[in-house]
Amino acid sequence: MLSAMSFQKANMRYFRIFFLQLQHAIEARSLSVVWFLTSLTTPLLMLIFWSGATAAAGGRIFSWSYSNFATYYLFIALASSMLTAHIEEDVAFEDINKGNLSQYILKPFPYYTSKFLLELPWRLFQGSLAISGIVIVALFFKNLVSVTSSPIILLLAIVIAILAFILSFTFKMILGLLAFWFTEISGVMNVNEIIFSIASGTLIPLEFFPNNLRTLFEILPFSYMIYYPIIAFLGKLNTTSLLQVILMQLLWIFIFSLVYKFTWAKGRKTFTAVGL
């Protein structure tokens, strides 16, 4: 009975943190709108490029039509808003460099859980803006946005999207924790952004890379955060391929979980030593 009551109280704390942060995200909606519009810049530029390329190629490049490209880059904006975590700067600059980590260490639940509950409302709110934008585009431009009509593939695509966010969040937490050992972490984050933009398919779908590069990107975790969730919704993967993507995501989540636990354990000792 006591354990059940303790579990219920813990859940109430989690929900309270989540809804308070969601309220904050809604109150700061102008900031979310700016971030969303910023995330649209690169996809729109790339869409203009592929518009000319598909027209010059007779309307289709390999198996991709202009409608596929339009949906892909609109979903890039959605993935950047909803699936890509942006917690690393908060962890590195606010918590570690400024010493705010102490307040989390004293809390009765894990640091990872606390930051997850703080990040999730922002992703949901900004993701809702992106979804609204895609719906408006689909209403005004008929047949421009095309997604799979298969219920099974759509369900698996949703699972892949959820795992993509967990994978992205865990990776960004590790990236932020590197501030325990790096005096200036901005350079590491900038390098990560460059690698991520290329290897995740944000700039160009991985299908258009040379085979050796594509094989490398399929091994790295970045494509499972952006590229595969999007092409899953496009219906370009069969059920077997979707299950393989899920297995790879679970594998990378497991690996990053181990790395996070190790980094957190070592970094927390360093932070405590500095505080003393």
How would you characterize this protein structure?
The chain is an all-alpha fold and about 280 residues long. Helix content is about 75%, strand content about 0%. The protein is built from eleven helices and two strands, in the order ααββααααααααα. It has a two-stranded antiparallel ribbon. Strand 1 (about 60) and strand 2 form a beta hairpin. It starts with a helix and ends with a helix.
- Shape label: globular
> Which strand order spans the largest sheet, edge to edge or round the barrel?
1-2
Which blocks of ≥5 consecutive residues have pLDDT under 50? none
What is the string of SSEs from the N terminus onward?
HHEEHHHHHHHHH
Biggest β-sheet description = 2 strands, antiparallel
Helix fraction?
over 70%
> Into which percentage range does the β-strand content fall?
under 5%
Please tally the β strands and state the result.
2
Structural class: mainly alpha
